[in-house]
From TrEMBL, chains A, B, C:
The keyword Lyase does not apply. This is Ammonium transporter AmtB-like domain-containing protein. The keyword Transmembrane applies. Pfam families: Ammonium_transp. One of its GO terms (molecular function) is ammonium channel activity. It comes from the Eukaryota. Keywords: Ammonia transport, Cell membrane, Glycoprotein, Membrane, Transmembrane, Transmembrane helix, Transport. One of its GO terms (cellular component) is plasma membrane. Gene3D superfamilies: Ammonium transporter AmtB like domains. The chain crosses the membrane at residues 9-30, 64-82, 89-109, 121-142, 154-173, 185-203, 215-234, 254-273, 285-304, 310-331, 343-365, 398-419. It comes from Oncorhynchus mykiss (Rainbow trout).
């Protein structure tokens, strides 16, 4: 019970040492790519590029900024729903994303784009997007352990999470040559199971002791909607940020836009139907409305067709909301997985659906729909993979999904065990979900005293309903 | 008084059935256009397009995303100002926009871009922008009835609103060949009068019974400013999103940027002058500062010149703020129009001004200012309209504005009558503006007890000022 | 003590007169540039431009919108942290930015782009960005006097601030030919010292009388994080918005992105280390995390290399957070500078660091790193400056920084003296940081009564801790 949450040494040391390591490694490895180097003027002349607008920057920067907003405002504010953990939600999200993106540039660079001749990693705007994507996986995992871990644990989780991510991504995208532009498998399935497994290892049987801090208050739910909406609105940018120039980005946007719209309606339907009088639940609206974006991560660039996108969204709204109603309680009670934000319903399950949708639509692709060159471009059937058939591709897509689950579960089990060591300054069971553990909070949590007041004879009767389970009635004579 | 607000059947059924209808209709009608189809590689070769950057996606996507933010965060948060209706504001806004954009793609497709040969509607990024625009009309209307209707009524209102919108838009833009890039007439005038007329039909003589729920609290006013600012900042994107490539988009941005800046100053001036000690009113700052963007919707792409844009903004700030001070109370008392958000002052009136400004500036256009080709491009004097003079154009612009008013009022009257049926689960008069009717609210509304405390002899004197009209003083002996 | 804060005449008069002056001056001077004029079609033909995408609009508009968000939401919400001054923070920010950008278009136009033949200023998207930049300087200064001045004073401060800005910018960028794409010197150093000096002139020895209003509450800190995050996320757009097309914009984004990530880690480290139990302080997270963006304003477009950017961020996080802990109290006590938002730590100091970093990296630039043409492009060694060496350039960069400090301090002293006149309606010492002075606040500030309740014998014991320094214990018999 007497947990030591003093992180005055560990947190600064980890931040300093890791940041210095980043500087050294960046010094050794990271350079500007040819489109962001001052030698671009020579590259242009050499490659006969007539206009600066051909710089990849102009194809991807608007999408990058949208993704950037999703990472920092989207994920950050989505998690502010707890009544007294908003500092931790948005603040630790900020911290781990800032570290994670640096480490991701290195890890992804080593695996994907290390130049064999110079031994350098050359980065441009697409590298920044990929780093943000990689970080997203870790932020998803944060959702499962929100309020129950220390910032030091989160940094450790991110260090390993990014490392695992880069490896599974390399296996799925490069070795298996699966397509996963919006990361249903690589980001959401991996991140989801990684977080859930860590949460399972860190199971707290006495978490009910901080029950008073779980749940939202009115304004924290509205803060969370800021996160929801920025994720929802910019998801088309997420799924299209690294797809092919031209029709690839264009199509991914249309598909995601439609899919998400459809998800909102079925989320509302199930949420309303699950309550006696048809009232809506903010938890569903904040989370399940996003499931369609997750599930279209793989297939967004495919010719899934507009109505196909609507169908995926339709199903995901139902499944995700049902998840909050039925599966989350089951996970907690039976499987001992405490999933603060319900990432199983928002990321893990829809991610798996996305992998399946991707495999099926890839296997069903045909030259009559895509055109000969369109098929080659979409699935990148070039080089070593120029003879691959769409059926084979479908198989490799499915294999990719299994890889992401295995990495999530196995990685989560290992990292969870590391995080279980009693050195990280995590909070006691009765102090979970409370910002006061890691933050200077100037305004102490108030006891909300809820009164019904009525003048009654010579007295005012107060019906007092404190949310701290104290309930009484008393009178004040005046 | 005993209204049944149970929507456990109606809401899910409407959501499910309509979404399934969307899927079927999309399956029959909607396809990717040539710029978002994998055959784009062939189109490029055929049309001799040298670079993917020529894809319309890169001209319009940044503006589209800004518009998308306006629809979901802008409109959604602008309406969160009520103390206990923020869930409904942002949540129902989310729901009806998500449905509306799907239905809009179909309705606008049938009227504007149904391919006669294939019977299909081909969609691209411009279609998405237009769908968002169409939805904006319905969200404006929502502002008039905010807090007084059920989500089912809102969905019905949106179904008919989008339908009416597509028809009036077809008449104004295609038949009359009026120009209205930012939708002063098509979006704001129509949406404004549509909502006001519905609110007039649904007049609640006993609305004062929920007076305690009207008005804002401190934090809800700040939430509303999120909406205001995102609308204000991105309005240049709104007015330029579908204007001509190149100078058309460029000029519309400059004009709207300037016009809105000017509006802020006159709004502040009138707001301050209207109070005894010069204090500002948040209602004015949240709403009237936006009126300039509405009023420049039609003329944004014209050569109205920078100082012209400033003048429009100058006038709109004055008129809109005056509207809140003088006209809204008049509408409510005399015309029996209860306009929760004051859309008459923010959309309807400025929309009409915008239509007039558009007609005048069109009629005053000249080859000396626009250049020969510039005039043709700006007013699209090609095909059937190649011999139209600017004076005639001005006339048709004015005619367009009348059409939008007629559609708004007539449509609102019909739809209002439908919504008056006692089957939609709308709230009782005393439960208006209260989220608890349609939402699971975990934190019950608190009685805010406002005390002045002073030790006085042996007692502490509490001066109690409850906002629930109870006011008393009592002492507690210690 | 009896200060008159009635601004019912002054505020409306200033707004009206100045806005009318803007309209007249715009009518005389401001015209569309060739890329936003309908004659663009002829320009294209004349200059042999093949595509509309070559219009500068498409190079800069996405960055412009990000900058626009920083100005209105970023700066506005960053200042909402005070418990009862959020209306003033976001509302007055809105007002002065809206006025300032108009005046900036004129002032910057006269100094930078007045066409000698026509006597006109031709504006396009880059002018809008520069106007927003200019306004940023004044909003920074607002941070120092937040809560202590009237809106009329703020408008006066902005009028002179923009004027001074345009002059110092002309000296630094045109006469000295220093480079300062993201404005470390021109914007942040100037704005910082301008605000600090004004605050020094307006020193209030009895400011402690409004101590109860200083500091934040839980939700106001989260609102402030909206500002922080939008500033942080979009800073890469800020520093790249007006850099060279192509690699220039691309590189500035990468550098700023990395620098800011690094800053977050060292800010967290110092913040945690400065507290007994390692708790984090929201003030640091909200502000110091941004210092890296400020400090890279000058060098963002240089070949500072990715690890160089990380080092700058590393140092700035440390210095800025230390500033909040050690320097701010020193400034207040010893130098009599009351700096509400700590702009010395967020803008002034990091701005100076940015100027130094810029001078050093410019002096250290070499043809081997930049390439011959790259060096010329980056430092614009053309025309009169075609023979300048990088060492000389470094010297001029340093000179530029001195100019910005001198203008800030001298300008602030003069403007501060003007603002000291007793005619502007500023609040009394005990009413500072209180929205009720200038705003209609519907919900009066509540006395937060913090109780610990325990049933004790026949009584309930209330331990009352009012934040208004009243502390007592009383019992209520029931």
């Amino acid at each position: 019970m007497q947990k030591n949450t003093n992180i005055r040494l560990t947190l600064p040391v980890v931040c300093f040492v890791w940041q210095i390591a980043m500087i050294i490694l960046f010094g050794v490895f990271i350079r500007y790519d040819e489109e962001s180097d001052t030698h671009w003027v020579e590259t242009k002349a050499h490659d006969n590029i007539t206009s600066d607008i051909e710089n990849d920057f102009y194809f991807r920067y608007p999408s990058f900024q949208d993704v950037h907003v999703m990472i920092f405002v989207g994920f950050g504010f989505l998690m502010t729903f707890l009544k007294r953990y908003s500092f931790g939600a948005v603040g630790f999200n900020f911290l781990i994303a800032s570290f994670g993106l640096q480490w991701a540039l290195l890890m992804q660079g080593w695996f994907h784009s290390l130049d064999p001749q110079t031994g350098k990693i050359f980065i441009g705007v697409e590298s920044l997007i990929n780093a943000d994507f990689c970080v997203a996986g870790c932020l998803i995992a944060y959702g499962a352990v929100l309020g129950k871990v220390s910032p030091v644990q989160l940094l450790v989780m991110t260090l390993f999470g990014v490392t695992l991510f880069a490896v599974e991504e390399y296996i799925i995208l490069n070795l298996l040559h699966a397509r996963d532009a919006g990361g249903s498998m690589v980001i959401h399935t991996f991140g989801g199971y990684y977080g859930l497994t860590i949460s399972w290892v860190l199971y707290r049987p006495n978490l009910h002791q901080s029950k008073r801090m779980q749940g939202s208050v009115y304004h924290s739910d509205i803060f969370a909607m800021i996160g929801t909406l920025f994720l929802w609105m910019f998801w088309p940018s997420f799924n299209s940020a690294i797809t092919d120039h031209g029709d690839g980005q264009h199509r991914a946007v249309i598909n995601t836009y439609l899919c998400l719209a459809s998800t909102v309606l079925t989320t509302v339907a199930i949420s309303s139907f699950s309550q006696k009088t048809g009232k809506l639940d903010m938890v569903h609206i904040q989370n399940s409305t996003l499931a369609g974006g997750v599930a279209l991560g793989t297939a967004a660039e495919f010719m899934i067709s507009p109505y196909g996108a609507l169908i995926v969204g339709f199903l995901c709204g139902i499944i995700s909301t049902m998840g909050y109603i039925f599966i989350s309680p089951f996970l907690e009670k039976t499987l001992k997985i405490q999933d603060t934000c319900g990432i199983h319903n928002l990321h893990a399950m829809p991610g798996v659906i996305g992998g399946i949708v991707g495999a099926i639509t890839a296997a069903a692709a045909s030259e009559s729909v895509y055109g000969k060159q369109g098929l080659i471009n979409t699935f990148d059937f070039t080089g070593d993979f120029k003879d691959r058939t769409v059926l084979t591709q479908g198989g490799y897509q499915a294999a990719g999904m299994c890889v992401s689950i295995v990495f999530g579960v196995a990685g989560g089990a290992i990292v969870g065990s590391i995080l279980k060591l009693p050195i990280w300054g995590d909070p006691a069971d009765e102090n979970c979900f409370d910002d006061e553990v890691y933050w200077e909070v100037r305004e102490p949590a108030t006891h909300h005293l809820l009164f019904t007041i009525q003048p009654l004879g010579g007295a005012i009767v107060f019906d007092l309903v404190s949310r701290d389970e104290l309930q009484t009635t008393f009178e004040i004579y005046i």
